[in-house]
Amino acid sequence: MGRKWLLLSVGLMILLAAAPGSAKEGVKKPTKMEAEDVFGIGRLWTVHLRITEDGLRMMDPTRPVPRRGGVVGRSSGQPATAPATRPGEPATKPAAVEGQRLAPSPFGFEYAYVKCIVELENEVYRDVGIRYKGNASYQIASRGLKRPLKLDFNRFVDGQKFHGLTALNLNNNAYDPSMLREAMSYAVYRDAGVPAPRTAFAMVYLTVDGKYDREYLGVYAIVEEIDNSFLKSRFGSAKGLLLKPERISRLPYLGEKWSDYEDKLRPKTDVTEAAARRIVEFVKLINQADDETFRRDIASYMNVDGFLRYIAASTMLLNLDSFLVTGHNYYMYLNPEDNKIHWMPWDLHLSFGSFGEVESAEGKADLSIMRMYQGENKLVDRLLAMDDVNKAYKAHVKQFVETCCSVDKMHARIDVMQAAVSKADALAKAAGKKEIPATMPVNAGRIVRQKPDLKPFVSQRVESVLAQLDGKTEGFVPGGDAGSRWRFAEAFTGRGGRAGATGLGLAFMRASDTGQDRKLSQAELDQATRRFFADSDKDGKGSLDEKTLLAALQRSIPKSVEAGAGITRPDAPQRPKNMINIQNLGLEQAVAKLIIKEADANKDRRITLDELLATARKTFKQADRGSNGLLDERQVAETMIRLLPAPTTPPPARGW
Question: What pTM, to 2 d.p., does this model score?
Answer without folding.
Answer: 0.70
